[in-house]
């Protein structure tokens, strides 16, 4: 962990736990709030000063810092490593936790294309009535990614294990080793494209049968970790109820078929689509 810029959880611990049992007076709770506030300010400063976040200060509005602080207190993050990706909507960082390394995805409240996000959320019965408040939309989006990861996992699709979600911050299992992120399909030479295609095809079918469509599936959102194929980035995944779900699924099928055809395994979007939507056999 020597390459981590350590932000030690001990430094930002609040006295909360052992005081919870006590019957604290108003004066005492004011004092606790002041201590917590001071510790939060220290945490805030440390994050803002940390090298790996310097260019990204805009990502960390105070509410995001509050979310990170809570995740540190809860033991999900112990120290931040460098950025794994700086995307349009979100940045992903490597971090150490009390257990294995984790990936921390931070959605930007300001830079996010929240109108496009809303269009995806609109057709999703899980997020009915979300409205158009920018922060609420991004927070709902983050929760959606967490929920989608869980659902995919339950359906038997390999995805990073979702660990915690706090406002616009998602903590998940880090896929990779020694701090190096797992390679995307477009970055590896696929040794056996037929087998890899069959795995991806099966994942797509499992997702569909679990009522989900990825919506941005391609060689850029599929990685190879420990010789297994994993699917990333389920933020925009929609349920089959979404008015554009069929269009998204067709696009996913076209992307995947085109990629594997380029790898030497002929596939068509149409065939893939028929496979994915084939009704489940009666038990
Ligand atoms: N759990 C993870 N473990 C390892 N690397 C990850 C993890 N999650 C994301 N990454 C890395 O970060 C990149 C971006 O992640 P993701 O696709 O989830 O975010 P995004 O902001 O939607 O990206 P983009 O804007 O490029 O589509 C991934 O391609 C991958 O390399």
Automatic annotation (TrEMBL):
Any one Gene Ontology molecular-function term assigned to this protein's record: metal ion binding
InterPro entries found in the cross-reference section: Kinase-like_dom_sf, Prot_kinase_dom, RIO-type_Ser/Thr_kinase, RIO1_kinase, RIO_dom, RIO_kinase, RIO_kinase_CS, Tyr_kinase_AS
Region annotated Disordered, chain positions: 1-30
Keyword Nucleotide-binding: yes
Pfam families listed in its UniProt record: RIO1 (PF01163)
Compositionally biased region (Acidic residues): 1-29
Keywords, alphabetical: ATP-binding, Kinase, Magnesium, Metal-binding, Nucleotide-binding, Serine/threonine-protein kinase, Transferase
Catalysed reaction, written as an equation: L-threonyl-[protein] + ATP = O-phospho-L-threonyl-[protein] + ADP + H(+); L-seryl-[protein] + ATP = O-phospho-L-seryl-[protein] + ADP + H(+)
Positions of the Protein kinase domain: 78-283
Domain of life of the source: Archaea
Assigned EC number: 2.7.11.1
PROSITE patterns (alphabetical): PROTEIN_KINASE_DOM (PS50011), PROTEIN_KINASE_TYR (PS00109), RIO1 (PS01245)
NCBIfam families linked to this entry: Prot_Kin_Rio1_Halo
UniProt record similarity statement: Belongs to the protein kinase superfamily. RIO-type Ser/Thr kinase family.
Protein name: non-specific serine/threonine protein kinase
Species: Halosegnis rubeus
């Amino acid at each position: 962990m020597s390459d981590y810029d350590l932000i030690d959880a001990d430094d930002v611990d609040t006295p909360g736990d052992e005081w919870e049992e006590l019957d604290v007076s108003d004066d005492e709770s004011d004092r606790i709030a002041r201590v917590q506030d001071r510790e939060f300010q220290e945490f805030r400063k440390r994050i803002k000063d940390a090298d790996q976040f310097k260019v990204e200060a805009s990502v960390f509005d105070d509410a995001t810092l509050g979310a990170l602080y809570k995740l540190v207190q809860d033991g999900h993050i112990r120290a931040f490593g460098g950025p794994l990706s700086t995307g349009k909507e979100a940045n992903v960082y490597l971090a150490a936790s009390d257990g294995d390394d984790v990936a921390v995805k931070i959605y930007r409240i300001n830079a996010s294309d929240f109108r496009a996000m809303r269009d995806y959320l609109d057709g999703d019965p899980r997020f009915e009535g979300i409205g158009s408040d920018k922060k609420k939309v991004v927070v709902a989006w983050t929760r959606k990614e967490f929920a989608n990861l869980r659902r995919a996992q339950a359906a038997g699709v390999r995805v990073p294990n979702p660990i915690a979600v706090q406002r616009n911050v998602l903590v998940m299992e880090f896929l990779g080793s020694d701090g190096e992120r797992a390679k995307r399909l477009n970055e590896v030479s696929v040794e056996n494209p037929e087998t890899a295609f069959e795995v991806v095809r099966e994942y797509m079918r499992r997702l569909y049968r679990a009522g989900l469509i990825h919506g941005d599936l391609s060689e850029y959102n599929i990685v190879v970790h420990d010789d297994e194929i994993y699917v990333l980035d389920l933020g925009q995944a929609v349920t089959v109820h979404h008015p554009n779900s069929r269009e998204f699924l067709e696009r996913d099928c076209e992307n995947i078929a085109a990629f594997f055809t380029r790898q030497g395994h002929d596939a068509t979007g149409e065939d893939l689509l028929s496979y994915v939507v084939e009704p489940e056999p009666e038990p």
